Amino acid sequence: MPPTLEHMENVLRPLIVIGAAVLITLAVGWLVDRLLRRADTRHTETPLWGLLRRCRPALQCVLFFGLLRGSYEQAEVFEDHSEGIGRALGLILIGACAWLVVRIAAAIVESTYARYASRSPDPARLRRVRTQVTLIQRVVTAVVGVVAVAAMLLTFPAMRTVGTSMLASAGVLGIVAGIAAQSTLGNLFAGLQIAFGDMVRLGDTVVVDGEWGTIDEITLTFLTVRTWDERRITMPVSYFTSKPFENWSRGGAQMTGTVFFHLDHSAPVAAMRDKLHDILRECPAWDGRDWGLAVTDTTPTTIQVRALATAKDADDIWTVRVTVREQLVGWLADHHAYALPRVMTALAAPPPNGALDHSAPDGTAPRTGRG
């Protein structure tokens, strides 16, 4: 064969192989997307087919690198490095397969949650299911990632030998790894316990370490609480399985709030009760279920008055409490200032029988010395 023809063949062969892989990949990707689009149009009751269309890039990567891995030897390019090229394509193919599996699993999980959310009107149950499917998705991603990395390592002959020798000491290594990763494994199992034990869910209102906020994110190892002033507190999930905390969203979102006042004994309690009812009627956050005002304690100088009101959730109960506190204190200051607590002062009573009284009868200081 003339050198020019041989040179042209060496150039055209890889181009043909790569070009054929690209064309087949694009054609299959277009065909799969067309079928999924048609299925999504026919089955509007489930978003699964529309979500699976997001897997098209991962599917095309698997097809492209799979075709190259199976046909690169036919191109007869870089024959001296064919083993390295084949291993590199194999590693990329394993990563692409893991990516495709993760995307398919995410589509199935999101579709399942969307169908459940369309049928269940209970917000608390939706938050519980959302927490569970989120953690399930993270577990699947972690497992697929570990399997993919293990498969990549096993493509190297040296790693197979190491793996065989490691099996003999797997018991000792397992004990050492368990002790070293005790905290991590504890958080991992705590995350699964939170997901399926229904202890805390995404969107729940909680009080932890004196901080009030809502659950913003839950992972297998940590949990994020978003406070009312937009701060994020990151805590290990094991905290919620080992220490007590307040969950205001358990058993329904409705709440009862209280406001305490320390007032003078002459405070007009009956008038305060009527004023509280007027304030609540004008407060949109009050749900109208219950209210009340009562004297709950007394001291030698003040009385303790408790105002009570209800609201549909934690956010509204906060609004009700601050509204009642602000307007009732202002009303007392404007119309019943005498009811506010005061510091009582009085002249000291003289001691009996003139004890310790060394002043003269006319009030002058006593005279000392003779003369």
The biggest beta sheet, please? 5 strands, antiparallel
Structural class: alpha+beta
Shape: elongated
Which sequence of strands runs across the widest sheet? 4-3-2-1-5
Please tally the helical runs, counting DSSP H or I stretches of 4 or more residues.
11
Tell me the series of helices and strands, N- to C-terminal: HHHHHHHHEEEEHEEHEEH
Please tell me how large the radius of gyration is.
Answer: 38 Å
Q: Beta-strand level of the residues, as a percent range?
A: 15-25%
According to DSSP, the number of beta strands is: 8
Sequence stretches where pLDDT stays below 50 over 5 or more residues: 166-173, 365-371
Mean pLDDT: 75
- Determine the fraction of residues in helical runs and give it as a percent range: 55-70%
Q: Span from first to last CA?
A: 149 Å
Description:
The protein is about 55% helix and about 15% strand. The chain contains eleven helices and eight strands. Strand 3 and strand 4 (about 230-235) form a beta hairpin. Helix 3 (about 55-75) packs antiparallel against helix 4 (about 80-120).
How would you summarize this macromolecular structure in one to three sentences?
With 371 residues, the protein is α+β, with helices and mostly antiparallel strands. It has 11 helices and 8 strands. The longest helix is centred in the first third of the chain and has 40 residues.
Topology:
Elements: H1 3-42, H2 48-52, H3 56-75, H4 82-119, H5 123-154, H6 157-168, H7 170-180, H8 182-197, E1 205-208, E2 211-218, E3 222-227, E4 232-236, H9 239-242, E5 246-247, E6 255-263, H10 269-281, E7 286-298, E8 303-311, H11 314-335
Helix pairs in contact: 1-3, 3-4, 4-5, 5-8, 10-11
